[in-house]
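User: Hi! I have a protein structure encoded as tokens and I'd like to know what sequence might fold into it. I'm fairly new to this, so please keep things simple.
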């Protein structure tokens, strides 16, 4: 009986509930996503029972190169012949090579890197560097922002539910509405060190700012000698149709954070990139920010393989093309189901469907799971479904997801008595 998949699944869910948390299992069950991830390949993941899904959640965008990409796995296997994670205090060739590669692809003159293992850690480093370098205290962040659950990053999250139980948080953090330049202008003081932003808010609901927003923020920062930190942890590495989302608006930040897809879905790594002049801060304090697992040699080798892969196959260009194919399908759905679908927000393969009310997100999540698509409503807003498939998705796979959406909406409109637009 040991190999009966249904039994193995029940046991794994029961152990997960008992030893990790019952509410996680209950929530995933309600969403039709009580999956035990088993085989993974390209855009697909299989439940332990053999059911196949297209993964449009991808850990909120960690699988840009696809799940278990063979070229990345082969780079990691080869690295294991020589390397381990390395000693974080020592210099190594993989660390130097990845830092140099990142400097080569980053916008403008972001030349230096500090490595970490996760996104929150990268943002913590960014905020520490901003305060340390400017000798100023205040950090401006935005409503609905998501920068991670670590110390400084948590203080810059724009959602109270994540923060309230842990108050008091870091002092000196001031929240403004996203996309509102006047709000930033009014909040700046002589003690403002930095503004931290996602170029497009991910967790907040795929919020794309007005086109003049980021250039105006850049100008405000220049005028007031404030550092601009852009969190490209979800938006980076081709996701939006450019290597980094800031390139859509020609804006170069002073500090930029990357994580998620840099690890290719197989090895955790993050980086905080910054302009060369900021290096001055580290001259008297070269060991002021340390991370044992940050920038491990294996992670750096994986990061280089990921960047090579994205460039070799022009995944940013492919994201743009596949994004356009999705868009045509979304436009048809907007026309057909106006009582369900209100709006679509999209850059490349960073896509958000705005439903007409909050009950629709969870119901659509379940219906999509039934049809073999993993696409979950966002943490900040259940009326928004986020779609972030691997950038290696093919036209046929895009059509599969669109068919699943259309079929699910057809069923839902019948159930809810909301009706089609006919
Ligand atoms: C924009 C953004 N920043 C930071 C983070 C935090 O990254 P991590 O979970 O690796 O700490 C996330 C995670 O979803 C994110 O989407």
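Assistant: Happy to help. Inverse folding works backwards from shape to sequence: for each of the 422 positions I chose a residue that suits the local structure. Here it is:
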């Amino acid at each position: 009986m040991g190999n009966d998949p249904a039994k193995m699944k029940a046991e794994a869910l029961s152990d997960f509930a008992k030893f990790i948390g019952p509410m996680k299992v209950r929530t995933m069950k309600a969403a039709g996503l009580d999956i035990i991830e088993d085989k993974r390949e390209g855009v697909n993941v299989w439940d332990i029972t053999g059911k196949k899904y297209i993964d449009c959640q991808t850990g909120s965008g960690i699988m840009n190169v696809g799940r278990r990409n063979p070229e990345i796995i082969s780079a990691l296997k080869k690295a294991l012949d020589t390397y381990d994670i390395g000693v974080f205090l020592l210099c190594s060739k993989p660390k130097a090579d990845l830092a140099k590669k990142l400097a080569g692809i980053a916008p403008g003159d972001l030349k230096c890197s500090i490595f970490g293992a996760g996104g929150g850690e990268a943002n913590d480093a960014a905020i520490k560097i901003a305060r340390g370098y400017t000798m100023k205290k205040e950090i401006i962040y935005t409503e609905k922002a998501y920068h991670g659950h670590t110390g400084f990053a948590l203080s810059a999250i724009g959602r109270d539910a994540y923060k309230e139980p842990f108050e008091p948080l870091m002092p000196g953090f001031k929240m403004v509405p996203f996309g509102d330049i006047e709000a930033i202008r009014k909040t700046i003081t002589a003690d403002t060190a930095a503004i931290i932003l996602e170029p497009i808010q991910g967790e907040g609901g795929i919020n794309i700012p007005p086109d003049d927003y980021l250039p105006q923020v850049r100008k405000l920062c220049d005028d007031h000698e404030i550092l601009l930190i852009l969190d490209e942890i979800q938006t980076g590495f081709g996701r939006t149709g450019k290597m980094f989302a800031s390139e859509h608006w020609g804006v170069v930040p002073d500090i930029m954070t990357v994580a998620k897809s840099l690890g290719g879905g197989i090895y955790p790594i993050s980086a905080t990139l910054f302009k060369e002049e900021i290096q001055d801060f580290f001259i008297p304090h070269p060991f002021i920010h340390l991370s044992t697992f940050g920038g491990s040699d294996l992670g750096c080798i994986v990061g280089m393989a990921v960047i090579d892969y994205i460039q070799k196959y022009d995944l940013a260009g492919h994201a743009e093309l596949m994004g356009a194919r999705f868009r045509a399908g979304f436009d048809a759905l907007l026309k057909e189901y106006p009582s369900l679908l209100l709006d679509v927000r999209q850059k490349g393969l960073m896509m958000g469907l705005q439903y007409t009310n909050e009950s629709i997100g969870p119901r659509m999540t379940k219906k999509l799971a039934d049809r073999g698509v993993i696409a979950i409503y966002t943490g900040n807003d259940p009326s928004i479904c986020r779609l972030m498939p691997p950038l290696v998705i093919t036209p046929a796979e895009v059509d599969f997801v669109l068919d699943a959406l259309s079929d699910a909406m057809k069923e839902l409109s019948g159930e809810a008595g909301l009706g089609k637009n006919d």
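A useful reference point when you look it over: The chain has 14 helices and 15 strands. Feel free to ask if any position seems puzzling.
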